[in-house]
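Appendix B. One record, verbatim.
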Amino acid sequence: MRHHTKDKGDLAVAKVIADAAKTGIKSCVPITEHLPFDLILVDAECQLRRVQVRYAKARKNRMRMRLRSSYSWKGGCRVRLLDRTKIDGFPVYCPDTDRIYYLRTDEIPADAASEIEISLADKAKWVASKYLGAERLFTAKTLAPVAQMERASVF
């Protein structure tokens, strides 16, 4: 059964997993849909990053990254803002450029309510080329916990 929105999300997740793997970052896929993140990315030092993957088409040389989630159920449709304290970053897949742009949650202003615009042009506040590379999710000043530190060197 096809579901257009889910198909786009699945494609974005697959692209992020492949892109992160190119730089040695491993991906863990949760076994439930009821978490605030889509993947956990793990670097060579076993640092973990919870990421919410986004799919964003370019329109007028810009991509809109939504900071909310929506779902449908028998009672209708529900939209709610994401709790960014439970997410470390947003990989944004753009099919028009076939690239993934990685934004850390600490880079998004607290007053950004429902979406931000990422520009494909060089002169803008949020320039897409600044957000390339999965490893940039691991450069934040506040680091997430490290799992099994004694085994990090053999990862």
